[in-house]
């Protein structure tokens, strides 16, 4: 199955449409390791974890999380998610979710996907809070 078909299948299974920036990431990279951190998408040799599986797991285990969150990185008890509810079509804000607490949407976001992903990892999952 080609990447484009896999992307469309993932969208159908999750009941969402990816923003253009994430769709391009999936087409060009599939997934990536940035500064030692895995950004999930389509499973690859470097990142065998799937964004689809991670998002489905979050939806099953955390019913309080909005359906429009798509998990792109998980580390310990935190996840970086695309917030498709706030997506303007081209891009989507990336929000950090503490998986141990009830989810409340915060107006603060880590970054947009089009921003440098290294910054996302540095200020998101890599921060020592």
Radius of gyration: 13 Å
CATH hierarchy: architecture: 3-Layer(aba) Sandwich
Q: How many E-type strands?
A: 6
What class, by secondary structure content?
alpha+beta
Strand order of the largest sheet: 3-4-5-6
Question: How much helical structure, as a percent, in the residues?
Answer: 25-40%
> Number of helical runs?
4
- CATH fold title: SMI1/KNR4-like
Task: Please write the CATH class name.
Answer: Alpha Beta
Assign the CATH superfamily: SMI1/KNR4-like
Percentage of β-strand residues: 15-25%
Ends apart, CA distance between termini: 41 Å
User: What's the mean pLDDT score?
Assistant: 82
Question: Which runs of at least 5 residues are low in confidence (pLDDT < 50)?
Answer: 123-129
* Global morphology: globular
Number of domains: 1
Main beta sheet? 4 strands, antiparallel
Give the SSE layout.
Blueprint: H1 3-14, H2 20-28, E1 32-34, E2 37-39, H3 51-61, E3 69-75, E4 78-83, E5 93-98, E6 111-112, H4 117-123
Antiparallel strand pairs: 1-2, 3-4, 4-5, 5-6
Characterise the protein shown here.
It is built from 4 helices and 6 strands; from the N terminus they run H-H-E-E-H-E-E-E-E-H. It has a single domain, classed as SMI1/KNR4-like. The chain is an alpha+beta fold and 129 residues long. The radius of gyration is 13 Å and the shape is globular. Strand 3 and strand 4 form a beta hairpin. 30% of the residues lie in helices and 21% in strands.
